[in-house]
Amino acid sequence: MAATDVAAVIGVREAGGGFVDDLRAVRVVWKRELIRFFRNRMRILTSLAQPVLFLFVLGTGLARMLPSGGRHVDFRTFMFPGVIAMTILFSSIFSAVSIVWDREFGFLREMMVAPVRRGAVLLGKCLGGASVATLQGIVMLVLAGLVHVPYKPTLLLTLVVEMALIAFALTAFGTLIASRMAQVESFQVVMQFFVLPMFFLSGAVFPLRGLPHWLSALTKVDPLSYAVDPMRRAIFGHLKVSASLAHTLNPGMTWNGWRLPTLFELAIVIVLGSGMLALAVVRFSKPD
Amino acid sequence: MDTVIEARDLAKRYDNLEAVRGVSFSVQPGEIFGFLGPNGAGKSTTINILCTLALPTGGGASVAGYDVVSAPREVRRRIGLVFQDTTLDDYLTATENLRFHAELYGVPSHVIDERVHQVMDMVGLWERRTSIVRTFSGGMKRRLEIARGLLHSPRVLFLDEPTVGLDPQTRSTIWAYIQELRQRESITIFLTTHYMDEAEYCDRIAIIDHGEIVVVDTPEALKASIGKDRVELRTADDSVAIAALHEHFGLEATPSEGEVAFHVEKGEEFVPRLFAELDVPIHSVRVARPTLDDVFMSYTGRTIRDAEASGADRNRANVWVRSTRAR
Fold first, then answer.
1. Among candidate residues B89, B183, B227, B288, the one with its CA nearest the CA of residue A6
2. Domains recognised in chain B with CATH numbers
3. Residue A68: its pLDDT value, please?
4. What pLDDT, in 10s, does the model give residues A86-125?
5. Which of A101, A125, A286, A288 to probe the B interface (max B CBs under 10 A)?
6. Positions in chain A whose pLDDT score sits under 50
7. pLDDT digits over B21-54, tens only?
8. Which pLDDT band, with edges at 50, 70 and 90, does B242 fall under?
9. Nearest in space to A144 (alpha carbons), one of A166, A163, A125
């Protein structure tokens, strides 16, 4: 093959605008995450094993202990938004931490030396991780009927949008952690000190009501609480339950007795996510 | 444009280590310019600064007409990089890796397919384009990385130890590509190596040691500058032999890898005198025309292998401790 119009390629490239280049970078980094996700079938299955275990084993077992739980509302219906949040949480953090893998296997360097803004690379990474997490959440959503959550289009759509926002914020959070992580081995530490506490404090497995002071304070600090509550509220909005039971199981997130509106909670999630992404960009932008 | 790479008193200091101590050089368009030196001499640090991955702590540099500190993005657009360690995504196919790079480097969409085909053809990987990179051998990965480095038609291709860890056959294949590249793509190549035989391929080489450039010239001129043959002796007592060589012939000999080495004009004619006048029993003699090894030695006072070994002294000591314990 003859050396074709090399000069022409150079000419076009150097004329290229910065913003368009950055958009292409976001898109291709996002696409890579999806390609890798769909190629790794084991990951799709194994990452769903844990939520399914929580929902059907832990959920079914706990339901037996609750005196009135079995009658009006299946305890697993209560747990369902928590388990979806768990799916999103684990998947998002896992995606974000793959940056550390990328660093270890050198691919991060290929991305970091490209003539695009580092922010574009990280945004692509976050959107990719968020898409993957949302897809996994949607797979969990398929099981809704098994725990008496109705398949109503408006409910499903609301949940998917909420999942996507939460996934984005959590991936940004994971990316920020990854900017500090030197080796993949630290992933265990992240799980123990961030992910599991976030999960247990979020109201995923028990209602955030009538808790001791210290525990109540911790749940309000946990960003995931503001992600679980909107989803639970959406689901309870489509259930036929008595007001008192709804109050017990779906107390909502309160600040000094003020019940936070859904949009306010989602705004917290978005602001936190964007802030963490911005911080991660700063971290990654420093040259050696 | 007269020079493609220009470095002025470039320096890089990490906390208490001066990795690069004020190097200056310039590279002309179309040149293959090599940085030759032992591990830890400052080669990779210099390349990282030129590629805008590290900031200099002193001096400055420009690549393809842009300053590496004030216009890093312009520099990055115009350079291709092949790192010492592979930086491919093992889970993607060869084509996916290249397409990823093309998008990231802003290669116009309508030329991507053609360009990917072209560079893959060049490194002989077109047949394996749909294979997952994990299944590639080390040599294939390196070839794919070279193809990737070229994809966006850079002005300068940086190769950091391009053939390290590869078998001799793959190394020579890769060198054939590099030579071909320069003709086809008319680009400048900047590479680092600690293999003497690879330095021979360069148009000009800079010998770097302890963060400083010792000399810059063509391999031929460097070898000619020595003008002397290298003589290596195995003797019964090296230290006595070194003293005797100094006393009788005024030669500065150095011990190297269990031998005594020195440089002398017309080496073959010197050998009979050596046997006649040296008191120390001689086990063997070897006379060699100057190589880049000798160039390195004459400019730095040691062979490149010794230079690397001295960095590994501590490890060697550990080995020694272990072997004495075993006894």
1. B183
2. 5-222 (3.40.50.300), 226-326 (3.30.70)
3. 54
4. 999 999 998 888 888 888 888 988 998 899 988 999 999 9
5. A288
6. 1-13, 15, 69-70
7. 999 999 999 899 999 988 888 898 999 999 998 9
8. confident
9. A163
Partnered with residue B125 across adjacent β-strands are none
**B257's torsion region: left (phi>0), alpha (psi -120 to 50) or beta?**
left
pLDDT at B276: 85
H helix or E strand, kind and range, residue A265:
helix A262-285
Helices A225-236 and A153-180 pack at an angle, to 10 degrees, of 170
Contacts of B91 in chain A (CB under 8 A): 36, 39-40
Q: Give the pLDDT confidence score for residue A33 in this predicted structure.
A: 94
Q: Which of A195-204, B160-169, B262-271, B312-321 has the lowest mean pLDDT?
A: B312-321
Quick check: helix, strand or coil at residue B186? coil
Closest CA relative to residue B274, chosen from B161, B74, A112, B283? B283
The SS3 of residue B169 is helix
Q: Whose structure tokens read 């391009």?
A: B162
Structure tokens at A103: 């660093």
Task: Return the structure tokens found at A196.
Answer: 């599991």
A42 close contact with B: CB closer than 8 A: no
CB contact under 8 A, A113 and B91: no
Cα A194 from chain centre:
13
Nearest partner of A191 among A96, A123, A114, judged by Cα: A96
Q: Looking at this predicted complex, what is its ipTM?
A: 0.85
The CA distance from B184 to the nearest CA of chain A, in Å, is: 6
Cβ contact, residue pair B52, A113, below 8 Å: yes
- Tokens encoding A88: 């999103």
Length of chain B in residues, anyone? Answer: 327
Directed axis angle between helix A118-141 and helix A41-53, to 10°?
60
3-state secondary structure B248-285: HHCCCCEEECCEEEEEECCHHHHHHHHHHHCCCCEEEE
**For residue B254, how far is the Cα from the chain centroid?**
24
Q: Contact at 8 Å (CB) between B239 and B228?
A: no
